[in-house]
Design brief:
Layout (H helix, E strand, L loop, with lengths): L3 E2 L9 E7 L16 E7 L2 E8 L6 H10 L12 E10 L2 E10 L10 H4 L5 E7 L3 H5 L1 H10 L8 E6 L11 H10 L4 E3 L8 H17 L7 E3 L2 E3 L4 H13 L12
Parallel strand pairs: 1-3, 4-6, 4-7, 7-8, 8-9
Antiparallel strand pairs: 2-3, 5-6, 10-11
The protein binds guanosine-5'-triphosphate.
Amino acid sequence: MEPIEENPWPRPDSDVQKTNVSSPGSSGQDMNNAVPNTVIEKHVQKRIFKIIVIGDSNVGKTCLTFRFCGGSFPEKTEATIGVDFREKTLEVEGEIIKLQLWDTAGQERFRKSMVQHYYRNVHAVVFVYDVTKISSFENLPVWIEECDRHNLGRDIPRILVGNKCDVKDKVAVNTNMAQKFADTHNMPVFETSAKDDAETDHVEAIFMTLAHKLKTAKPLMPPQSYGGAVCYKTDATRVVSINKAASNHSGNVEKESCSC
Ligand SMILES: Nc1nc2c(ncn2[C@@H]2O[C@H](COP(=O)(O)OP(=O)(O)OP(=O)(O)O)[C@@H](O)[C@H]2O)c(=O)[nH]1
């Protein structure tokens, strides 16, 4: 028997719960009396938020995103070429949302042709510096400038993360400096370590803070698709219709996507 689809638009990013419903006493061998298993697929629509993670090479962008999405510190990393994607689905105040983290290359030579793509339809930005390397902190204005150059609205949530706090004897950027900079640029600052297992919850909390901001943020974007994912417009009307579909599984949500 064909699967019953409650939502006519299966999407690569949808959560699919498969429930096998079989009749008690049925046997796969007696096909006349058997009630074959029916697979009910429930596709839960969810909002996807694109977050770009930027900062100098070697500050730990890959490790931070890996820690958040994978729950561990990668044993070995190599310089990111272009961009890597990591995703995590979260429940925020009753709504299932997906954070799509774009781990961008810090090295100029690995960024060149990709930069336009990073900045398209961004919902939030994470600036990362290395607390043990002053130059990575001093370069932050360059990264902010790059955001401005690509017309990233000032209303888009931004956070600052000082990484590698586990290397306590080599701290070159103290908390006061970081806080002052963050205040000037109107964003919260977090100091953490992707490496230290004891900081796992803290890394999680940082991204959760962002997720909360995004959930309550004012709608900005038309629906877009990229990398196989579909991102929905976050205007109030849209949110209502997505939430409704998610809660009653009626599936009658207009699917929108575009190429960008
Ligand atoms: N001690 C310590 N080392 C870290 C931490 N995070 C990352 N590293 C190390 O820093 C180096 C660079 O980490 P990556 O995550 O690859 O840095 P990146 O910012 O993604 O670098 P690019 O891809 O070149 O932009 C690696 O050797 C990591 O093991 C941390 O919290 N503490």
